[in-house]
Amino acid sequence: MQDSEKPSTNKSLKPKHLIFILVPTLIVLVLGLFLNHFNYWPFQGDKVAGVPDDQLVQLENGQDLTSLLLAYGSQLKFNTTATSLTVYFDHYRKGELSTHESVASLTYEQEVSISGYLNFGIAEGQNHLLVKLFSKGAMSQTVTDLSDYDFPLGQDNRQFSAVTSIKNGKVKLEKNKKTPLLYLAEGTDGGKIYAEMANNLAPENLKTLPNAYLLYLIIK
Q1: Band (114; pLDDT cuts 50, 70, 90)
Q2: How many angstroms separate the CA atoms of 55 and 57, rounded?
Q3: 215 has which bridge partners?
Q4: pTM of this prediction?
Q5: Could you give the CA distance from residue 64 to residue 93 in angstroms, rounded to a whole number?
Q6: C-alpha angle 77-44-58 in degrees, rounded to nearest 5
Q7: Is 50 exposed, middle or buried (0-12, 13-18, 19+ CB in 10 A)?
């Protein structure tokens, strides 16, 4: 008699079984990448949740008391690494820079992780520009009287236009590069506002405006 053949003991995974293993693994991997990119738990640490590194992001729910009291304002949050964050206020007269001032600043001795919030706006019915920058307990805030820079209040014969420049609710932060926050322009036709901030700040455009104002952020 011949020995009967024994069944093979080598087992291979069927395609259906592979799918059951690979799909959950892929889902966990993608979810982990998403949580890490947006600094959600368990990757958050002391960063602002929902904000990728080196980005300035519009708050999703900005309708609190502060926002209701401000015109031309915005509430932002950020995560970055730098030695300083500074908000500047520039005033142009017919294209000439007549004022350049720091209105809020956080400075450190060495490069550190900086996460926090930036609020700004003009008080409703007033000429006061409010700027507040804060991160992990450190805070810098100022109130600037725009009357000192020929910004009108209640002068109906002078027309202004304004735009906040955080496109699509977020902007990438780059060291030593201006990040425009707020631009205001006076003009006989209400002030020309272009979709691209570079066009608003072009010398040939600024020369046509009696007054223009720019609020911007620089990180180093």
Answers
A1: very high
A2: 6
A3: 89, 182
A4: 0.82
A5: 34
A6: 20
A7: middle
